[in-house]
Amino acid sequence: MCGICGYVGDYRPELLASMCCAMVHRGPDDFGVWHDLDSSVGLGHRRLSIIDLSSAGHQPMANRAENIRLSYNGEIYNFKELRNDLISKGYEFRSQSDTEVVLYLYEEYGLKFLTKLNGIFALGIWDERTRKLILARDHAGVKPLYYWQSGNKLFFASEIKALLKVPEIPREVNIEAIPSYLTFLWVPGEETMLRGIRKVEPGQYLLWQEGKIEKETWFSLNYEPDCKVSDKEWIERVHTTFMAATKRQMMSDVKLGAFLSGGLDSSSIVASMRNTYPDRQISCYTMAFDAADLKCEGFADDLPYAKKVAEHLDVDMNSIVVSPESLNLLPKIIYQMEEPDADPTAILTYLVSKMAREDGTTVLLSGTGGDEVFFGYRSHQAFLNYERLKWMPKSVLTSILSMLEKIGSTVNGAQGPLSRRARKFKCGLLAEGLDRHMEIVDWSSSKIRKSLLSKDLRSRIISTSSVPDCMNKYFESFSGSGEINRHSHLLVQTFLAAHNFLYTDKCSMATSVETRVPFMDVELMQLCAIIPERVKLRGKTTKYPLKKAMERYLPSDVLYRSKTGFTPPLRQWIMNSCDTFISDLLSEDRIKNRGFFSSGYLKKIINENKANAADHSYLIYALMSLELWIQSFIDNAGVEVDL
Q1: Rounded distance between C-alpha atoms, residue 413 and residue 473, angstroms
Q2: Alpha carbon separation from 80 to 51, 247, 378 (Å, rounded)
Q3: pLDDT tens digits along 25-76
Q4: Which regions of 255-371 does DSSP assign to beta strands (E)?
């Protein structure tokens, strides 16, 4: 992968080198800039060479007439077919790179070229013929793209650190995003926590011309099930499409491997890799945790399954032990992610990517996205159960759930899996529509947020609503039928694009490793969207067609084991190992000086969590992450801080 940057509407060539320098980890292999005084435009690029390692892939790249320029970050997996089509139309190529294919596709088809791409990307195109700048992000938002506009001026980059090289960009907290952050643990939609800096949204392009911006969605899925296809045929279609998707994403001129947690998604990808290339050496990477900590979280130990899959498929297995001391990496992780994101899985992604890079691997395939497209989360099962339990009075159900919550709290405390899950299911049961989705994904509560926000902050923000405008937009933009499908649509637009892909991209690219996600293959996503809900989720069996399709390659105890999250035992770490960390970052003086939160209520949250009287671990981790982010990006304007 690479890093891109640029500007338009303000001639600032002196900034391009420093913007590129801020992203050297994204592209250690090459560096290039181009600018034009007459058009007040400039493009920059850092390159991580994956396809065509020669200098012919240098960027920014121009067409033969030199009236179209491209700075591009990504991989187009169907570029060879697209290249052949362009050759038949008379185009001549100077390289073997997918970059040149993207450039000529735009020249031939204009903005419609985006619909022909099957890949992951963020790009900037300057079209001198129309004096337009086009910014575009891939269909699922796998690759990041940020921008800042002031009057006629626009600056863009793959990373916020590059944008902070522009002196006039304000270093201020976007206080309007704080309620959303406390709800999700990350910021959805186009907003970021840095005021004025926005994201191009997944499947969106942005068009700048004469100082004005237009935004358009170029990709959306239609979740209209095809009920005429038999279950057996769905299984075969899934098998064929998934195998083809993985094969496409194995194209590389450098060493390629995979994450292997031992779960269904990563195991399926490695099985597909082995089936595609029976004799190729395949290196896989995973992590290990303390089994007792995992048990308290309600998760099984993944490592034995990862080892079993590696042995079964004859692939190399590399693992790293992750302990509470790994939280010392949090300042580095927040600096690399550039947005506060309270998921400790980011630390794992960084450590595993670093291990892979030190092993000589530059590209890793990841199972991210499999749960969204095939209905793999407990939340999918919750939606199914809501439908099944419609006949039962809600008063009866809530009484039963309250009893389970009480029993769970008595046995294992408020952070035990039974009490947590009963409480969450009950919250969703009592809501409808978008509110139900919000209850399921909410990591705090409206009551807690209202008490936690300081009086001063509440008076300064327009709305303390936990439902940001983007959630209403995504909810209404759903095309098709089925509430479980709609739930997955929302997860793809938000949980994946603004969270999972944020930390996956940033933490792997911090080690100069490219991560690819076969479950986000365009053809596979389109197929999954039309599979009926009852086929994707069959009772307690999640991801039914994928599991059946992979029975020919993987042991049944790997396929049909209970879901385990690719995440460390944060609750145990926060309760037992992080007192000094918490007392430093969330000290009373520090909280009062920031002025965002009530120090008294925060102390109550910390004490309740420590006593296992409430489940606040992720909220505490979110506040720690936010404080570190403020230190790096507000106090120090994009500098990594020390604990």
Answers
A1: 38
A2: 12, 14, 39
A3: 998 887 899 999 999 999 999 987 666 566 777 889 999 999 999 999 999 9
A4: 256-259, 283-288, 316-321, 363-365
